[in-house]
């Protein structure tokens, strides 16, 4: 047994300057052979990429809230909350490490702007911001880089996702698009 297993997670975390989180760990070092052996990413047809196809459509039809020079901002079709936005580069890349400096910088600027607009339009109290990289990292569209900007409010979550696999989203996407697009234009 390793020292961490023998001493327990709580003691190991304290020894390493961490804070115990109350979870037990099942250490499986034999799984590293599978992880390190990994498979190369499958090829992907850009013409079928839902984020690439939005670029050639109208803003209203594609639910694009803003178009920048290197990136655009679009409503998520499967939102966690009303106003759930994604900041996407126009270029079809799957990994943050593949982004040019200009793409990376504009993603940051547009993420900040999205936060401002969402707060102005809907009184957002907090945000979840992030990227899921690769299918195993949780990305639903793993071959096209996108950053989520999810507005949050006190009490915005309930039991429905747990017991019924259902999300209650109180605002229709078209209404959300209209409100955010108008507010974004006023920010310029």
Report, as a whole number of angstroms, the end-to-end distance: 60 Å
> What is the helix tally?
7
The number of strands is 5
What structural category arises from helix and sheet content?
alpha+beta
Describe it.
This protein has 188 residues and is of the alpha+beta class. 38% of the residues lie in helices and 13% in strands. The protein has 7 helices and 5 strands; from the N terminus they run ααααβββαββαα. Strands 1-2-3-5-4 form a 5-stranded antiparallel sheet. Strand 1 and strand 2 (71-75) form a beta hairpin. It is globular, with a radius of gyration of 20 Å.
What's this model, at a glance?
With 188 residues, the chain is α+β, with helices and mostly antiparallel strands. It is built from 7 helices and 5 strands.
Please outline the helices and strands.
Layout: H1 3-15, H2 32-37, H3 50-55, H4 59-62, E1 64-67, E2 71-75, E3 85-89, H5 101-122, E4 126-130, E5 147-152, H6 160-164, H7 173-187
Antiparallel strand pairs: 1-2, 2-3, 3-5, 4-5
GO molecular function, one term: hydrolase activity
Keywords: Hydrolase, Nucleotide-binding
Protein name: Hydrolase
């Amino acid at each position: 047994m390793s020292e961490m297993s023998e001493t327990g997670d709580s003691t190991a975390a304290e020894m390493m300057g961490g804070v115990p989180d109350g979870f037990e760990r099942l250490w499986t070092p034999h799984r590293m052979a599978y992880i390190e052996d990994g498979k190369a990413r499958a090829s992907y047809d850009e013409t079928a990429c839902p984020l690439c196809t939005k670029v050639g459509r109208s803003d209203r039809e594609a639910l694009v809230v803003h178009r920048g020079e290197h990136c655009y901002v679009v409503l998520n079709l499967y939102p966690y909350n009303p106003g759930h936005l994604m900041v996407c580069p126009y270029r079809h890349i799957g990994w943050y490490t593949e982004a040019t400096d200009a793409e990376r910088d504009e993603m940051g600027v547009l993420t900040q702007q999205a936060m401002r607009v969402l707060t102005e339009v809907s009184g957002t109290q907090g945000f979840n911001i992030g990227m899921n990289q690769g299918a195993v990292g949780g990305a639903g569209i793993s071959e096209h880089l996108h950053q989520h900007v999810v507005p949050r409010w006190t009490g915005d979550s309930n039991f429905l996702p747990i017991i019924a696999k259902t999300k209650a989203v109180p605002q229709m996407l078209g209404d959300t698009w209209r409100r955010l697009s108008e507010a974004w234009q006023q920010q310029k």
